[in-house]
Amino acid sequence: MNLTPVRMPVRASDRLVDKYDREFPYLRLSITDICNFRCEYCLPDGYHCRTRPEFLSREEIRRLVTVFADLGVWKVRLTGGEPSIRRDFSEIIEMVSHLPGIKTTAFTTNGYRLLANAEKWHDAGIRNLNVSVDSLDPDLFHKITGHDRLKDVLAGIEKSLDVGYDQVKINVVLLKDINDNALTDYMEYIRQRPVTVRFIELMQTGDNLAYFKRRHRSAQVIRTELVRQGWTENIRVNGAGPAVNFTHPDYQGAIGLIAPYSKDFCLACNRLRVTATGDLRLCLFGDIGIPLRDLLQSDDQMPALKKRIIKQLDHKKSSHFLADGETGLIPNLSSTGG
């Protein structure tokens, strides 16, 4: 298989800008929708699929990322499901990381393979790492995820810090009456660790309405407590995600809040998504999936792929409509990479 990077001529007009003048330097690329955890807010009954899906091949991924890089994307996050389930995950990392124009390769994981592979993945090219840790209490972690693996996941994070990743973040889905009182525990965890803990508001998806109504908690409760304890909100850096970050002089780490139900959340949107089977999603909660896979079969299709992607930005909306209960095509967070 030929993995030689293909570089196309770049014109000034070939950049990803929508009609609201938002630029998109950040691609979230799902490489599988399979996950081995059974998180109660996402896949409480585990992963099920009637037919075995055929996920994007490495060659298809190479062509896809090459075109996005030629359109100004410089950050790629590999997501799932659980991306490390793929047997060729390390090869995908190495390929994507070395494509012209890509400055940062990141991935999001449940951490179950992190301890054994942190150094290998760093050597392959991963620089930013997000790990889902919805509780620091072993029993509660087990209850939420369906797996008694908190000790291993935390050991993997420690290994990652030793290896020297540029960024290590912990994702916490904020759940009412489950972990919404755990701020103090996470603050103590990051007191001597350069880790960012990000509290993410539970989002409604196509199959979790009853759970959402029971467990949704606004991130404002965390913000209020941070301000009360003297934490300072930081300026958002270029290429960063949607989190609002807070720091405190007494802590090495930081606290982030991702609040998709907050006012003007989408004003600074800077990312596009592609599913594991090659559909472009202009929004995590969009109601349209634009197929790209038919233009990923040979290198000579790449100019046409570029034109299709650019054209679709005309259809990107100003905002999601989660507050109105519109969840788009997403049945659960695993299906589009969160």
How many helices? The count is 9
Radius of gyration: 19 Å
Structural class: alpha/beta
Strand content: 15-25%
Strand order of the largest sheet: 7-8-9-6-5-4-3-2-1-10-11-12
Can you give a write-up of this model?
The protein has 338 residues and is of the alpha/beta class. It has a single domain (26-335), classed as Aldolase class I (TIM Barrel). 26% of the residues lie in helices and 16% in strands. The chain is built from nine helices and twelve strands. The protein has a twelve-stranded mixed sheet with strand order 7-8-9-6-5-4-3-2-1-10-11-12. Strand 1, helix 1 and strand 2 (75-79) form a beta-alpha-beta unit. Helix 1 runs parallel beside helix 2, helix 2 (89-97) packs parallel to helix 3 and helix 3 (114-124) packs parallel to helix 5 (150-163). The radius of gyration is 19 Å and the shape is globular. Residues 1-12 have low confidence and may be disordered.
